[in-house]
Amino acid sequence: MEFKKRKTEENGDANSPPSSIDAAVIPPALTSDDIRKILQPFTQEQLLDLLQSASLQHPDILDAVRSVADRDTTRRKLFVRGLSGETTTETLRTVFSSYGDLDEAIVIFDKATGRSKGYGFVVYRHVDGAVLALKEPSKKIDGRMTVTQLAAAGSTGGDVSSRKVFVGNVPFEVSAESLLSEFSKYGEIEEGPLGFDKASGKTRGFAFFVYKTEEGAKNSVAESMKTVDGHQVICKFAVDNKKPKPVGQNPSGFPVDNSNVNYHPPNPTMMPPQYGAPPNSYVQQPYGNQVPAAGGYGPGPVPHYGGPVAGPGPVPGPRGPQTAVGGYPDGSQYGYPQQPMPVQRPPPGGMYQPYY
């Protein structure tokens, strides 16, 4: 009996309640640092997926995300180009307010003439308004397709030569709406018609369209003659008139040569480049080299009074120094009298000096 009693005391009474050790243990709540440690190994893509899902399901999380994003104004400010001269600030506000609350909407006008410059700006109160507006970058406003982009992006149109179409022989009475209606048949238009007079809002005899795809542009020029409001117009790809500058020519188009400038050894009596002289004029130099005078500003070369001349050509007489054509005397004691060549000929190719 003594043994059984001792056993019962050690193991506890069978009718006694279970000890606290057997009860379910409630863990302490996680702190923000604990959550950060859990999230730290996640990739950016995993975090974006989690936050995206949470923002859609919980409005308070969406508000928190929005409040951070709204601090950056560049993400809420849009630039709108291709506007008609008739489009007002009120029209711009009406169009873009459908995507969200606005802080500002304005069409830019020329202060001198009071005419629209053809572009404007829109600032949304929340970044999500700008995101929704940019889903449709091309918007039809007052009969024209306009282009919307983030203002901070600057001019990011890129090369549109393969998508840009020129329309000629457009009568003044043809409206932008009529042109847009006709050329929209061939593909989705990104921007246009462009080229209308900003004061009158009428065509100046031509217009441009930029299609969203090359295919649309090709379809539109497949038949060059089209009829708009009973008038025949012609269309073709708009070609950039800028041509590459020929090798060996300076920006002014005049060929120059100073390939031998660096050939001579240092010499204090060497003639410096002559500023102010007309293009393609030549000056006799020692060593039999000819260096063209570059156009520009400043005094021309002036010979030393009574001094000998090292190169070919006459020595200045008692009348005084000869002044280089196009230059101004400054009393300098270096250089040689200028000998214009009777016949101009382009020098051999080589390095060239800037022409101003």
Which class do the helix and strand fractions yield?
alpha+beta
CATH-assigned fold name of the domain at 72-152: Alpha-Beta Plaits
Low-pLDDT residue spans: 241-337, 347-356
The whole-number mean of residue pLDDT values reads 74
CATH level-four homologous superfamily name of the domain at 72-152: RRM (RNA recognition motif) domain
Describe the structure.
This protein has helices spanning 2-11, 32-39, 44-57, 59-69, 89-96, 127-133, 176-183, 214-221; strands spanning 77-81, 102-109, 116-124, 138-141, 144-150, 164-168, 189-194, 206-211, 225-228, 231-237, 282-284, 290-292. It has 356 residues and is α+β, with helices and mostly antiparallel strands. Among the domains are: 42-69, no CATH class; 72-152, Alpha-Beta Plaits; 161-237, RRM (RNA recognition motif) domain (Alpha-Beta Plaits). The protein has a five-stranded antiparallel beta sheet. A five-stranded antiparallel beta sheet has the order 7-8-6-10-9. Helix 3 (44-57) packs across helix 4. The longest helix is centred in the N-terminal third of the chain and has 14 residues, at 44-57. The model is unreliable at 241-337 and 347-356 (pLDDT under 50).
What's a concise summary of this model?
The protein is an alpha+beta fold and 356 residues long. 21% of the residues lie in helices and 19% in strands. Among the domains are: 42-69, no CATH class; 72-152, Alpha-Beta Plaits (2-Layer Sandwich); 161-237, 2-Layer Sandwich (Alpha-Beta Plaits).
